[in-house]
């Protein structure tokens, strides 16, 4: 039995496990789940308020999109800092710090009277969400035995998806009743609860149970290159929609140069024994490399559709914000229960098969959207959304496990950070990509979102974007097959 900590000894995971017994790992999972729910809610719930916010600030579609894209850029880049923050400050200080930042972003965004301040609040929320999101995967792979990891991922995923499932429904009603400001305050109770749970159950130690140490400094040059590359990429995609193709080409070329420089710098740090922001040794593991490719495409389709669906339902089908949330609610509830069931399957069935099934169902869901018309019954939209959410339920608990189980234990924090970064980079691209292609296809059909009347031509433009997303998911199935474990090869996680 580990002795109780003295005032000078911060409680480690082992001490807390001894204090709370075998159930402690579930208490720890619950603690980080609440904070992750808050971060995911903040990333998705604003979408139902974008039309209202655009009207309030007199924004065009391009500027309004930055409410989502600015969050995504900040979240994507900050994910790379999670391993360093955990190593330097430990689980508890890092986690509580992100929750305080998320709380501040929600409050400031809710009271702001100027759009730049709203955008700044969204960036702060994105920074917090990016740091916190890799943490649960690290805890699941370290605190749970291999035969429990699928179940833990399923239960965690079930709780986390209830936030975006219920959030838009409540958020839509709040927008209709109280305006767009009210949705910023939805994260406040979740942040307060997560901070209380963190002080009770989250250890102060770094991953692996060792004390947090000052160690090496943050790879600021790598972080700067990653930030510049991501900003250039997204701005370049936005400029593709404008009248300056040369500026778009220069920005996209800048993104390519910045990311190439980022890879070069990470390789140089590794060769000199430094601490790179992203450990490129991760990609020597075939399953992790293929999982990262799946994560990028999956992120593009998922976050692109998260942006596209509310716009489609409000601008294409002329549903109110509250109707949008209500229509998507059944699909969200089905997703929560699907994840719980598939999580148990992930302990017994090959993860590559579960991911492939999920991607196929997601592709079918997007393709089915093309059959909807202005006079189609609303229940068809509900059914198609449910098919897609069942697909997500197969992917979410399986992809991280299939990609990271082969990793050596010291690489797990870096792996969780890297695959989250790749997924969110795909998500940031997906939001811009859907907006660009939608605007292009609307122009090709002789329509625009400024037209107050929805027409079959407008729906045809939306259909073509959904079919593009379906094609991306079908492409990702090919990479998902490469998640198969070679015959007779045990994983590093099982050898642990």
Can you put this structure into words, describing what you see?
This protein is mainly α and 496 residues long. 75% of the residues lie in helices and 0% in strands. The protein contains 18 helices and no strands. α4 packs parallel to α6.
Q: Measured on Cα atoms, how large is the radius of gyration?
A: 22 Å
Order of helices and strands: HHHHHHHHHHHHHHHHHH
- The residue ranges in which pLDDT falls below 50 over 5 or more consecutive positions are 1-10, 489-496
Helix- and strand-based class? mainly alpha
**Average pLDDT, to the nearest integer?**
81
**Shape, please?**
globular
What is the strand and helix layout of this fold?
Elements: H1 13-20, H2 24-44, H3 50-57, H4 61-78, H5 82-111, H6 115-132, H7 135-143, H8 146-178, H9 187-201, H10 220-239, H11 245-271, H12 286-316, H13 321-346, H14 351-368, H15 378-404, H16 412-444, H17 456-480, H18 492-495
Summarize the structure.
With 496 residues, this protein is mainly alpha-helical. Helix content is 75%, strand content 0%. The chain has helices at residues 13-20, 24-44, 50-57, 61-78, 82-111, 115-132, 135-143, 146-178, 187-201, 220-239, 245-271, 286-316, 321-346, 351-368, 378-404, 412-444, 456-480, 492-495.
Brief descriptors of the model:
globular; 496 residues; 18 helices
């Amino acid at each position: 039995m580990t002795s109780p900590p003295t005032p000078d000894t911060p409680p480690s995971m082992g001490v807390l496990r001894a204090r709370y017994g075998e159930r402690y790992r579930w208490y720890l999972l619950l603690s980080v789940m609440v904070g992750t729910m808050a971060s995911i809610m903040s990333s998705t719930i604003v979408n139902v308020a974008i039309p209202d916010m655009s009207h309030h600030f007199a924004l065009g579609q391009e500027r309004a999109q930055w409410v989502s894209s600015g969050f995504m850029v900040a979240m994507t880049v900050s994910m790379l800092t999670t391993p360093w923050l955990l190593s330097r400050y430990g689980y508890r200080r890092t986690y509580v710090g992100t929750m305080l930042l998320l709380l501040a972003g929600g409050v400031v965004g809710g009271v702001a009277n100027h759009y730049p301040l709203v955008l700044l609040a969204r960036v702060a929320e994105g920074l917090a969400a990016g740091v916190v999101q890799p943490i649960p995967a690290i805890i699941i792979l370290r605190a749970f035995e291999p035969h429990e990891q699928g179940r833990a991922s399923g239960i965690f995923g079930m709780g986390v998806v209830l936030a975006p499932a219920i959030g838009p429904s409540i958020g839509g009603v709040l927008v209709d009743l109280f305006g767009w400001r009210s949705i910023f305050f939805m994260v406040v109770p979740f942040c307060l609860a997560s901070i209380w749970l963190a002080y009770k159950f989250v250890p102060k130690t770094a991953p692996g149970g060792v004390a947090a140490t000052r160690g090496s400094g943050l790879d600021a040059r790598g972080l700067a290159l990653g930030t510049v590359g991501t900003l250039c990429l997204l701005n370049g995609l936005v400029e593709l929609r404008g009248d300056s193709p040369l500026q778009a080409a220069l920005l996209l070329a800048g993104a390519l140069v910045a990311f190439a420089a980022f890879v070069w710098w990470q390789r140089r740090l590794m060769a000199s024994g430094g601490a790179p922001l992203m450990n490129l040794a991760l990609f020597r593991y075939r399953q992790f490399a293929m999982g990262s490719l799946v994560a990028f495409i999956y992120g593009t389709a998922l976050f692109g559709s998260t942006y596209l669906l509310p716009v489609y339902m409000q601008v294409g089908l002329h549903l109110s914000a509250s109707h949008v949330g209500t229509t998507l609610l059944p699909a969200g509830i089905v997703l929560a229960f699907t994840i719980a069931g598939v999580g148990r399957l992930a302990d017994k069935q090959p993860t590559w098969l579960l991911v492939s099934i999920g991607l196929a169902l997601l592709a079918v869901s997007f393709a089915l959207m093309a059959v909807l018309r202005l006079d189609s019954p609303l229940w068809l939209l509900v059914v198609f959304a449910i098919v897609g959410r069942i697909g997500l339920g197969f992917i979410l608990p399986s992809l991280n496990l299939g990609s990271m189980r082969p990793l050596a234990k010291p690489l797990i924090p870096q792996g969780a950070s890297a695959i989250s970064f790749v997924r969110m980079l795909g998500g940031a691209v997906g939001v811009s990509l859907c907006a660009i292609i939608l605007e292009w296809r609307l122009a090709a059909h002789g329509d625009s979102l400024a037209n107050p009347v929805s027409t079959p031509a407008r729906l045809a433009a939306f259909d073509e974007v959904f079919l593009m997303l379906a094609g991306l998911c079908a492409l990702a199935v090919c990479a998902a097959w490469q998640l198969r474990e070679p015959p007779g090869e045990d994983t590093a996680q099982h050898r642990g």
